[in-house]
Write a structure and sequence with these properties.
Number of helices: 11
Shape: elongated
Oligomer: single chain
Largest sheet: 8 strands, mixed
Strand content: 15-25%
CATH class of the largest domain: Alpha Beta
Number of domains: 3
CATH superfamily of the largest domain: Periplasmic binding protein-like II
Distance between the termini: 71 Å
Helix content: 40-55%
């Protein structure tokens, strides 16, 4: 029994495909089969059931999977911790985040982190929130970062910062000379909305309903960049996270209006599987992201204070 056999077994359990595992590990498919057969022979158990279309674990395979994962985690940790004790961190981190957080919230942090730890490889992908939960549950990613996280029994949720939501209008809109307005003032306004089912859209809908505000939805999209462009063209107004419009505010193509009579902000959270223990690179990443989020929140609150 060796580490390669255990790693390939773990990967097959996750991917349910000898072909995919062979490609991911840059070896021939017959070699994968040989390694698995040797592992089964040494353990005296059949671990996988193979069919023309898929692969699944036998009860014996399912029974040892968690132990295999723990062995591999500990083996990976030996070298990582040894190097980190010499102030050299290395490893892999797989993250999925919703588009607006990945582009507008994480960019500066990731740049700082990768400069500090150049040997840590980060794989980052943008997905919708429901897809991020699915990827976590299938162990395709290590961490998810989303807004308005929901409670799930098998997932740990850690809040790390929040972003103020603001009304945005074009520079030619009738509200463009204002600094702030009550939410009721946008009643019947043409509106550019996030798609239904997106947590940010649901939070906005809840606030509008609470204040009995009706909007005229002219367009929906799940991409905040597209929403901003529609508002710039004066097709309608929108409500978006403030962090996503810094460039447009600087260029003067959009105007941001604070919402005076309601507190609408979106909480951002880090997700991980409860059964998964963080290795050293992930521990360092999460701790530094929490610190960064706290420092960012303090700076935002300081900037938003109105002098008396």
């Amino acid at each position: 029994m060796n580490i390669t056999q255990l790693k390939l077994f773990r990967d097959i359990a996750r991917e349910q495909s000898f072909v995919k595992v062979a490609q991911d590990n840059h070896i021939a498919q017959p070699s994968v089969s040989v390694h698995i057969k040797k592992l089964e022979h040494e353990l005296g158990k059949k671990l996988l059931v193979r069919s023309p279309h898929n692969v699944r674990l036998t009860p014996e395979g399912a029974l040892i999977l968690s132990d295999v994962k723990e062995i591999l985690r500990l083996c990976d940790g030996l070298k990582i911790r040894s190097n980190y004790s010499q102030e050299e961190l290395e490893g892999n981190i797989r993250i999925a985040t919703i588009y607006s957080v990945g582009i507008y919230e994480l960019g500066d942090f990731l740049a700082l982190f990768m400069r500090a730890f150049p040997k840590v490889h980060i794989h980052l992908e943008y997905r919708r929130a429901n897809e991020i939960y699915r990827l976590l549950e299938k162990e395709k990613i290590d961490l998810g970062i989303i807004a308005f996280a929901e409670k799930r029994n098998n997932i740990d949720t850690t809040f790390y910062t929040e972003d103020e939501m603001v009304i945005i209008v074009s520079k030619d809109h009738k509200f463009s000379k204002k600094k702030s307005i009550n939410i009721e003032q946008i009643n019947d306004e043409p509106f550019i909305a996030f798609e239904q089912g997106i947590p940010t859209r649901e939070a906005i809908d809840h606030i509008l309903q609470k204040h009995q505000v009706s909007i005229d939805i002219r367009m929906t999209n799940n991409n905040v960049y597209t929403l901003k462009k529609a508002v710039e063209a004066n097709i309608g107004i929108s409500i978006v996270p403030k962090r996503t419009i810094s460039e447009e505010l600087h260029q003067g193509t959009l105007v941001s209006l604070a919402i005076k009579n309601t507190d609408l902000s979106r909480p951002l959270s880090i997700l991980k599987l409860k059964r998964t223990k963080l290795n050293t690179p992930l521990e360092v990443f999460v701790n530094k992201l929490l610190t960064y989020g706290e420092e960012t929140s303090v700076k935002r609150k300081s900037r938003n204070k109105t002098p008396i």
